[in-house]
């Protein structure tokens, strides 16, 4: 039975590789705001979720996990601030079982920088400063995900899911973008072992940019630059494979250890394993629970190599920590991520979930 799941994973890997090779002109790091992650539990574990997610955030991490919902109504909201609060990352999801075998979720994500100062008209034609001409604008990325999951009859313990995502991005009044794509996922449980597989942007996601040249013409001509043109940006497929194992330690304590491998096909990235064809970025996370009420979490991700100022290279990782509490259908999760090894600035993530039947 496990062999069939491995065969399914290999087939998905081959499909993603084929699509990637057909779109060699696609840029790297397209729609990267969707790879920041959502939920205090996930971010406290280094974004390791493909095999273990089972709440309303499954619509984002792996839609197959929605089949494990235990309550009729499931809501999760999150707020985090990155880079000393300059970037706001907000998330809201609602999920519900449709019957004993299927479930549906709707998720909304916004990542944005607000109140950016526009000083293009600060000086008048006579050279005088006009403070009342200063305006403000926002740069924000939005994603709406509609997810569906169902238990499969192909293999005992196999769950399948997919989502449709609509993307909207805007840079003030200067440019807007609309995108559309699909994700697909699977989970399999064998005793205390859990396996997960997610293919993001499985058909590639197309993003159509529309540039408001009237807003930019004056500045671009004055600085001797060419005006940008409308264009199409393609987000290449990404494959995530995960495995996890849970343990019981006495009557009250539980432990969970999980790892994910992210496979990208848009060229060589600064990750642990990389080549011109595929790059592999590993994540590792762990969670210790007491009585199903209190949880302590940790994880590492973003393993990258940096050039030293004094010469040579070194490897650095991003550590993550989190705590959680669950009682009466209410879940509160906090996570802390250090954004850089040489920085005292950390990202604080707060997420709140509520599950109920009436």
From TrEMBL:
Residues 1-22 form the signal peptide. Keywords: Signal. This is PorV/PorQ family protein. It comes from Adhaeribacter terrigena.
């Amino acid at each position: 039975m496990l062999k069939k799941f491995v065969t399914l994973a290999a087939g998905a890997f081959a499909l993603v590789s084929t699509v990637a090779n057909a779109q060699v002109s696609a840029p790297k790091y397209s729609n990267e705001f969707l790879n920041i992650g959502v939920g205090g539990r996930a971010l406290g574990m280094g974004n390791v979720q493909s095999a273990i997610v089972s709440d309303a955030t499954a619509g984002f991490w792996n839609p197959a996990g929605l089949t494990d919902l235990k309550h009729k109504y499931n809501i999760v909201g999150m707020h985090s601030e990155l880079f000393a609060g300059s970037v706001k990352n907000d998330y809201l999801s609602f999920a519900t079982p449709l019957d004993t075998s299927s479930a549906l979720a709707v998720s909304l994500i916004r990542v944005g920088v607000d109140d950016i100062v526009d000083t293009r008209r600060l000086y008048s034609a006579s050279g005088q400063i006009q403070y009342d001409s200063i305006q403000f604008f926002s740069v924000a990325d939005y994603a709406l995900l509609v997810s569906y999951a169902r238990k499969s009859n192909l293999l005992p313990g196999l769950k399948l899911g997919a989502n449709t995502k609509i993307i909207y991005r805007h840079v003030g009044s200067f440019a807007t973008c609309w995108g559309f794509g699909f994700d697909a996922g699977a989970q399999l449980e064998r005793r205390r072992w859990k396996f997960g597989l997610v293919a993001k942007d499985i058909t590639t996601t197309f993003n159509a940019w529309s540039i408001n040249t009237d807003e930019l013409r004056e500045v671009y001509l004055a600085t001797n630059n060419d005006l940008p043109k409308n264009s199409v940006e393609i987000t290449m497929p990404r494959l995530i494979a995960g495995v996890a194992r849970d343990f019981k330690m006495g009557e009250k304590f539980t432990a969970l250890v999980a790892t994910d491998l992210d496979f990208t096909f848009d060229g060589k990235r600064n990750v642990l394993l990389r080549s011109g064809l595929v790059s592999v970025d590993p994540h590792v996370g762990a969670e210790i629970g007491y009585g199903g009420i209190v949880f302590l979490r940790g994880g590492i991700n973003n393993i990258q190599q940096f050039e030293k100022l004094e010469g040579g290279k070194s490897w650095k990782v991003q550590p993550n920590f989190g705590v959680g509490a669950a009682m009466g259908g209410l879940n509160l999760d906090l996570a802390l991520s250090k954004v850089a090894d040489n920085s005292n600035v950390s990202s604080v993530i707060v997420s709140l979930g509520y599950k109920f039947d009436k």
